[in-house]
Write a structure and sequence with these properties.
single chain; alpha/beta; six-stranded parallel beta sheet; disordered C terminus
């Protein structure tokens, strides 16, 4: 059943650890992640962006992803659990026409499927190597996200294969 919500409102739920592949991403990794996300999804000015990570990465994420609402939670699934609380406890299906879930974790599949059944357009943005089958099937649209750091940044932080 499609619910009544303001037309065009979009929510971004971003698990930075999942997109970067690291529980403690560097500032360069978060910046590259944010840039790639913006290229793929094109968030509009004023759209709500919720970025989650563990408390140990909070400072880097906060400084590298300005203008977002930040959620920090400890533990191996802390970011996932924080984003799930938003999905289940903040009337998302009533408030947004579309939702972007930036994670490949299958733990989101049931909530993504439920939002889709409520008439919410749900896009999943995930690294192909970390995208669960259940989440792929639950999403309205899947956008593959594989970020590579620019050669100058890779060299600056000492990654192999950098120019």
């Amino acid at each position: 059943m499609k619910r009544s919500f303001p037309a065009g409102r979009r929510l971004h739920l971003i698990d930075v650890e999942n997109l970067t592949g690291s529980p403690r991403p560097t500032a360069a990794e978060v910046l590259a992640c944010r840039q790639r996300y913006a290229e793929l999804v094109r968030p509009a000015c004023g759209e709500l962006c919720v970025v989650a990570c563990n408390h140990g990465a909070g400072g880097v994420v906060g400084f590298s992803w300005p203008g977002a609402r930040y959620l920090w939670r400890s533990g191996p699934d802390g970011a996932d659990l924080a984003l799930l609380e938003v999905m289940t406890g903040e009337s998302v299906s009533d408030r947004f026409e579309s939702v972007v879930v930036a994670s490949g974790d299958g733990r989101f599949a049931d909530n993504v499927a439920w939002l889709a059944r409520c008439g919410v357009h749900v896009t999943v943005v995930a690294n192909q190597r970390a995208l669960s089958r259940q989440l792929r099937l639950a999403a309205t649209v899947v956008v593959l996200f594989d970020v590579e750091l620019p050669p100058a940044i890779s060299a600056a932080i000492g990654l192999r294969g950098a120019a």
